[in-house]
């Protein structure tokens, strides 16, 4: 009798323990079933020249044995197909995805879970946040719900739905590993405080949604860190709050305007913190102040440590571009800083980030086929405002890029400043026109340009007639 009671008690304890364990793991079936219809697969076709290279932040995803495939070589341009994911945010067909999914695409096709297919139009793109807004002509489509990324906590469960390696509508789950990760893009700009997760994200998941357990989109899957080409548990998503602001601007005006302060910054280490009267390392140390910038006009000086900006605490230097970039140009905001051991408060009138208001054009604006001549570029003189902000005195400003032409295939974007073509320096618009006329066809030639003040070398090739 004692033995039977003992066995019963053991079985009861095991049942209770199993039930408790089950309660500790979320049931994701309802979330996935409800939201999958609003997740789409995106296929694109672009014209690519052999000289086109993959951006550095994505080259790390390619195994070493395949890297030779990225090297430029001679030959005729050929259609290149790629794929990604996205999600529907309105019943009339607006869809969010990554910029790098549709960048340079001549054709974008969207497939729903019920196998319906649509050709999509690119409404606007924002390379700085790696976001794009596209649209299909349809009605009564299933939609997702936005969530508040500010409420996301490290350790909570999240779910990704997308098409990894082209496998349709796959779901994976994990936890949030960290918040506010700073990962500079290819132009060394840093305007996205990424959500880091251990969710299995692979090529093809790009642009897909990251859900919380309430079935709300709290992030857009954008990047992975890997040494194998597949997931190793380090994936990064764009926060939904930032994405909603970017998408709203793209829908309204086809571009994104960001705040600009005009400082060069670095982190504060332990020794610097002690020397500057800080209790612990924190804030963004100002190492440079651009002349006539919002920071200069507000009285910010080299050596100041910015501790708060518009009420946001600046823990590390990477936090400052995040909050400044999300501030609308023209707004006056309070700034708290440490100067010579004394805390001070200033007010800054935030400027417009170069390349957003002054130079950035709607990346999807239909380009007239005969615009741009041999390179497929519409260019103009550089406005004085950009010369001051970027410290670039000579060159020509790219105003429009015709897809499928030499300039687009070289990776040029509106807002870039061309400083060299072939082996000749471009100082004026007249120089540009003269050099372009005599560029040979079918040869790889160097091109140097500035993007947001950062110099970049690539190659360009004019197709043979």
UniProtKB/TrEMBL annotation:
<dbReference type="Pfam" id="PF00595">
    <property type="entry name" value="PDZ"/>
</dbReference>
<comment type="similarity">
    <text>Belongs to the peptidase S1C family.</text>
</comment>
<dbReference type="InterPro" id="IPR001478">
    <property type="entry name" value="PDZ"/>
</dbReference>
<comment type="function">
    <text>Might be efficient in the degradation of transiently denatured and unfolded proteins which accumulate in the periplasm following stress conditions.</text>
</comment>
<keyword id="KW-0720">Serine protease</keyword>
<dbReference type="InterPro" id="IPR009003">
    <property type="entry name" value="Peptidase_S1_PA"/>
</dbReference>
<keyword id="KW-0732">Signal</keyword>
<dbReference type="InterPro" id="IPR011782">
    <property type="entry name" value="Pept_S1C_Do"/>
</dbReference>
<keyword id="KW-0378">Hydrolase</keyword>
<keyword id="KW-0574">Periplasm</keyword>
<dbReference type="InterPro" id="IPR001940">
    <property type="entry name" value="Peptidase_S1C"/>
</dbReference>
<protein>
    <recommendedName>
        <fullName>Probable periplasmic serine endoprotease DegP-like</fullName>
        <ecNumber>3.4.21.107</ecNumber>
    </recommendedName>
</protein>
<dbReference type="InterPro" id="IPR036034">
    <property type="entry name" value="PDZ_sf"/>
</dbReference>
<dbReference type="Pfam" id="PF13180">
    <property type="entry name" value="PDZ_2"/>
</dbReference>
<feature type="signal peptide">
    <location>
        <begin position="1"/>
        <end position="22"/>
    </location>
</feature>
<keyword id="KW-0645">Protease</keyword>
<keyword id="KW-0677">Repeat</keyword>
<feature type="domain" description="PDZ">
    <location>
        <begin position="245"/>
        <end position="315"/>
    </location>
</feature>
<dbReference type="Pfam" id="PF13365">
    <property type="entry name" value="Trypsin_2"/>
</dbReference>
<keyword id="KW-0346">Stress response</keyword>
């Amino acid at each position: 009798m004692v033995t039977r009671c003992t066995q019963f008690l053991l079985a009861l304890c095991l049942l209770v323990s199993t039930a408790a364990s089950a309660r500790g793991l979320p049931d994701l079936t309802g979330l996935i079933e409800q939201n999958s219809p609003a997740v789409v697969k995106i296929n694109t076709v672009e014209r690519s020249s052999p000289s086109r290279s993959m951006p550095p932040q994505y080259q790390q995803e390619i195994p070493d044995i395949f890297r030779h495939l990225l090297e430029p070589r001679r030959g005729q341009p050929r259609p290149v197909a790629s794929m990604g994911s996205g999600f529907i945010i309105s019943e009339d067909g607006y869809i969010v995805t990554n910029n790098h999914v549709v960048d340079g695409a001549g054709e974008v096709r969207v497939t729903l879970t019920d196998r319906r297919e649509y050709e999509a139009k690119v409404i606007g793109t924002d390379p700085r946040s790696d976001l794009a807004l596209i649209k299909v002509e349809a009605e009564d489509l299933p939609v997702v719900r936005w969530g508040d990324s500010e409420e996301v906590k490290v350790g909570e469960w999240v779910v990704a739905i997308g098409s990894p390696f082209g496998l349709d509508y796959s779901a994976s789950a994990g936890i949030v590993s960290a918040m506010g990760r700073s990962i500079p893009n290819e132009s060394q700009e840093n305007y996205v405080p990424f959500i880091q997760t251990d969710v299995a994200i692979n090529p093809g998941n790009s642009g897909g949604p990251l859900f919380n357990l309430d079935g709300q989109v709290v992030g857009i899957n954008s990047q992975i860190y890997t040494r194998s080409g597949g997931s190793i548990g380090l994936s990064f998503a764009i926060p939904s709050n930032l994405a909603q602001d970017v998408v709203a601007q793209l829908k309204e005006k086809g571009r994104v305007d960001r705040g600009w302060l005009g400082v060069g910054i670095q982190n504060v280490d332990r020794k610097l913190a002690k020397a500057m009267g800080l209790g612990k390392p924190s804030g963004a140390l100002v190492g440079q102040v651009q002349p006539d910038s919002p920071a200069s006009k507000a009285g910010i000086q080299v050596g100041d440590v910015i501790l708060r900006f518009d009420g946001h605490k600046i823990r590390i230097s990477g936090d400052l571009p995040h909050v400044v970039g999300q501030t609308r140009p023209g707004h006056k905001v309070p700034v708290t800083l440490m100067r010579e051991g004394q805390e001070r408060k200033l007010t800054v009138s935030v400027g417009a980030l170069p390349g957003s208001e002054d130079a950035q054009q709607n990346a999807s604006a239909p380009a007239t086929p005969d615009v741009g001549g041999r390179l497929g570029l519409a260019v103009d003189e550089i406005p004085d405002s950009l010369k001051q902000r970027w410290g670039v005195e000579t060159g020509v400003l790219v105003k429009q890029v015709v897809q499928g032409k030499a300039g687009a295939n070289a990776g040029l974007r509106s807002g870039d400043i061309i400083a060299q073509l072939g082996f000749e320096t471009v100082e004026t618009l007249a120089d540009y026109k003269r050099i372009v006329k005599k560029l040979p066809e079918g040869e790889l030639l160097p091109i140097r340009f500035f993007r947001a003040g950062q110099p970049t070398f690539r190659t360009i090739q004019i197709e043979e007639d």
